[in-house]
Every structure is written in structure tokens, then in C-alpha cells.
Design brief:
Layout: H1 5-16, H2 23-31, E1 52-55, E2 58-60, H3 63-73, E3 80-84, H4 90-97, E4 101-106, H5 109-112, H6 115-122, E5 128-131, E6 144-149, H7 158-162, E7 164-175, E8 180-188, E9 191-200
Parallel strand pairs: 3-4, 3-6, 4-5, 6-7
Antiparallel strand pairs: 1-2, 7-8, 8-9
Bound molecules: S-adenosyl-L-homocysteine.
The site of S-adenosyl-L-homocysteine has 27 residues, from β2, α4 and β4.
Length: about 210
């Protein structure tokens, strides 16, 4: 399926215009149509420059925010990636389109239930999915080359750093419940290198290493 005029405009104006330079990342956004990941009533705003509701009080982030996170991962073909907070499956689909083998954990079963069919429509291999508290990671499937957390944590979860392979990268919004910063943590030879960037606002990660439910 080739990208529509509106999707191409989203990529050109919001992502290229917003400073995303990775051709692999831009290509994945053209292949994975954001409209497939939002409920029917939000579809006419699918390429809107902001977050969108995916139902059940959860949101899919602004395209530029997602692109910055995926670019920060430095994802390469053949790598194993875990997403905590898989929601609609949009981020997982982008990673799969970039050639990663993808694993996702989502707390709300109803959200995760629609992910496999969306992957089938795009023609990318289905993810391994688990329902539950992703703040503890997925020890049985670890180590992961890349881990991305799509919900806000009080601090980067130690369990996730533990489950990175050597050279692995974790990207996670961490800080307060209402405002966070994006952390990029690389594990190398038993130590970690941390870079902190963009202020951001994510829905809370609810769980053991996350926030308490409202
Ligand atoms: N990346 C998603 C959007 C995620 S919104 C997408 O592309 O659509 C954040 C998601 O994190 C929500 O779906 C929420 O239910 C989920 N979540 C919150 N706490 C969680 C936890 N402890 N473990 C797994 N998922 C969690």
C-alpha cells in the first residue's frame, strides 16, 4: 500500500520539518499508516500534529515525539525490541517495519487485542504480546537490544536496564506524573551512559516500578 498524500505531508512537514533525519525512521512512518491505529471516530484527524485518543483513557503520542524516540533508539534490522505500553501497536509496527523482531507488553487487554490484525493489514510479522505489568519487563524473553517505554515512569525502571543486552539502549520518559524528560540509557560493559533530553508528557505507567492507579 503506498502512502496517501496526507500521510506523506505528515512525514514531510512534521517529521522532516521537525528535524528527523534517519531515512529508515522516515520510511517506516510512510509504510505504517497512523490511521490504522486510531479508532474510526478519530480517523479524519489521524495525521494531526498532536496526540490522539486510542480509547480507554490512553493516547498515541504526537508523530514527532514518536519519531524522536524511535530515532533515539538507533534501531537496526534484526535487533530484538521490547515496547512497554504497546497500546494500539503503532510504535511496535514502526519498529517491525524497520526489521526488528518485536515484543510488546500492554496492561489493557482490550487495546492489545487489535494489534495482530493491524500488523496483518500492513504485511509485517506479528509481534509477541503479553498482557500485564511491563514495568518489570519480560525476563523470560530478555535480553533485548532495544527497549522503549511509551508511558511515564518515576525513574528509569532498573528491571528494564537489567534486561538490556550489552550495547543495548533504553528510551524512557521519566520524572513526575504530569511532566517528564526523555532518557536514553545505553548499557556498555557493565556500566550505563545516560542522556536526558526533551521535556514531554506521557500517560502514567501503572505498576510496580511505575505510578499508582488514580
Ligand atoms: N505506544 C502506544 C501508545 C501507548 S499509551 C501506541 O503506539 O499506541 C501508553 C500505554 O501504556 C497505554 O496503552 C497503557 O495502558 C499502557 N500501560 C500503562 N501502564 C502499563 C504497564 N505497567 N505495563 C504495560 N502497559 C502499561
Amino acid at each position: 500500500m503506498s502512502a496517501t498524500v496526507d500521510l506523506k505531508r505528515m512525514v514531510r512537514e512534521q517529521l522532516l520539518g521537525g528535524g528527523i533525519r534517519s531515512r529508515k525512521v522516515l520510511g517506516a512512518f510512510l509504510r505504517v499508516d497512523r490511521a490504522l491505529f486510531v479508532p474510526p471516530e478519530a480517523r479524519r484527524r489521524a495525521y494531526h500534529d498532536g496526540p490522539l485518543s486510542i480509547g480507554l483513557g490512553q493516547t498515541i503520542s504526537q508523530p514527532l515525539m514518536v519519531a524522536e524516540m524511535v530515532e533515539a533508539l538507533g534501531l537496526r534490522r534484526g535487533q530484538k525490541l521490547l515496547e512497554v505500553g504497546a497500546g494500539s501497536g503503532y510504535v511496535l509496527a514502526l519498529a517491525a517495519a524497520m526489521g526488528a523482531t518485536v515484543y510488546g507488553i500492554e496492561r489493557i487487554e482490550e487495546l492489545a487485542a487489535s494489534i495482530p490484525a493491524r500488523f496483518d493489514l500492513i504485511g509485517i510479522p506479528r509481534p509477541s504480546l503479553r498482557i500485564g505489568d511491563g514495568s518489570l519487563g519480560w525476563p523470560d524473553a530478555s535480553p533485548f537490544d532495544r527497549i522503549i517505554v511509551s508511558a511515564a515512569c518515576p525513574e528509569p525502571p532498573p528491571a528494564l536496564i537489567e534486561q538490556l543486552s550489552d550495547g543495548g539502549v533504553l528510551v524512557v520518559p521519566a520524572g513526575g506524573r504530569h511532566l517528564q524528560r526523555l532518557y536514553r540509557i545505553q548499557k556498555r560493559g557493565g556500566t550505563t551512559i545516560t542522556a536526558v533530553s526533551t521535556p514531554c508528557v506521557f500517560v502514567p505507567l501503572i505498576g510496580k516500578n511505575g505510578f499508582a492507579e488514580d
